[in-house]
Write a structure and sequence with these properties.
By secondary structure, this protein is mainly alpha-helical. A two-stranded parallel ribbon has the order 1-2. α1 packs across α5 and α2 packs across α4. The chain is rod-shaped and about 95 Å long.
Length: 124
């Protein structure tokens, strides 16, 4: 399952690291606790729109840019998940049983009591 909060946290962390800033700097500027910002970046907490706005302001990033990057990440994750789900599943090999040959019995008198896929009947 794809978690939006995890993708959002990854994008926020990358934005912060691109700027060479620490969690402490961004949390102070955004007026959010360092521990909570860390949990948001790790995808453990859902960030409210107000909190996201404060973090974006602290990072000097427009929220639309942040959401566009999250959307791109989500699209890639969905494609990867879809590709993984459509991989071919190997077909199990059924064991082949010995064939039975019926020569001297008229066809109307042959009765086979076995699963149809388990027995091959060859009339000679």
């Amino acid at each position: 399952m794809i978690l939006l909060r995890r993708l959002l946290g990854d994008v926020l962390r990358r934005q912060r690291q691109r700027q060479g800033r620490t969690l402490r700097e961004v949390s102070s500027s955004a007026r959010v606790s360092l521990g909570y910002l860390s949990e948001v970046e790790r995808g453990q907490k859902e960030a409210s729109s107000e909190l996201l706005s404060a973090i974006c302001d602290a990072l000097d990033v427009r929220m639309s840019e942040l959401m566009r990057e999250v959307s791109d990440e989500l699209a890639l994750a969905e494609l990867a998940q879809s590709a993984a789900a459509t991989e071919p599943v190997p077909t199990p090999v059924r064991p082949r049983l010995n064939s039975v040959s019926v020569r001297s019995v008229p066809p109307e008198r042959v009765t086979i009591k076995a699963p149809a896929e388990a027995v091959d009947v060859v009339a000679a």
